[in-house]
Amino acid sequence: MTKKIKFPPLSDTLLAIAGAALCGFGCGLVNYASLGMDSIGIFYDGIRNILNLSSDQIGTASYIVCFILLVFLFFAGRRYVSFGTVIYILFYGACANAGTMLMEYLGQLTGLGDVIWVRAVLASLGILMLWIGIGIYVAIDIGVDAFTGIVLWLTDVTHKKMESVKIVFDLVLTVIGLLLGGRIGVFTVITIFIGGPCISFFTRKVQGWYFKKKR
Q: Cα–Cα distance between 69 and 60 in angstroms, integer?
């Protein structure tokens, strides 16, 4: 008998779309700021570089990487792959491309694109959007993004804390991304060492708010 696909409630689906959009636009802001991306962003940037894609096609690189990781998770950690995972991949890539192009347009329009403090603010906002978006996805538990799925799978396999696994995983991604030509900066260091704890913090906050609201 063919197993039916279980779709999440509409409220969960809408929240998942919001989380994916936050992550995508956050990536776009960080990509445009060019002050260092998070580990996943550096990895995407490295893939974009070796594929000779333009800077505003980082979302396209994410589609390629996530598809490969999705296939791996399907066999290694299938419980982390669901309808929500597909939502994330679709909306993240599109919003990352859109976010970068929007920032490039506004930068040219206002003439503030090369102002360092403006880029710092955009990078900070982008990183915050990324962490909140991932926290939303982990909290509603309808399937996480491919990279978080890998982290959760590694957490289960190693029986270590997610925060510790996330830090090591980010370091590995950063090294690989750099070897492929990805860009690094001060915000890279920040995200590697506090990204895991911050994502866990936002996950707990979303869980407390959302599940209390659903009762």
A: 15
**pLDDT confidence of residue 4:** 52
Distance CA 53, CA 51 (A): 6
Who contacts 209 (Cβ-Cβ below 8 Å, separation ≥6)?
Answer: none
Q: Is 109 exposed, middle or buried (0-12, 13-18, 19+ CB in 10 A)?
A: exposed
| Residue ranges, the chain, pLDDT below 70 | 1-6, 211-215
pLDDT value of position 44: 92
pTM of the predicted model as reported, rounded to 2 decimal places: 0.79
Domain boundaries, the chain: 10-207
Contacts of 71-74 spanning 24+ positions with Cβ under 8 A: 72/150, 73/146, 73/149, 73/150, 73/153
SS3 180: coil
| pLDDT confidence of residue 135 | 87
107, 93, 86, 92: which is closest to 34 by C-alpha?
107
CB 7 within 8 A of CB 13: yes
Contact 51, 181 (CB under 8 A): no
Which DSSP symbol is given to 112?
A: -
Residue with tokens 């060019």: 34
Tokens of 71: 């296939």
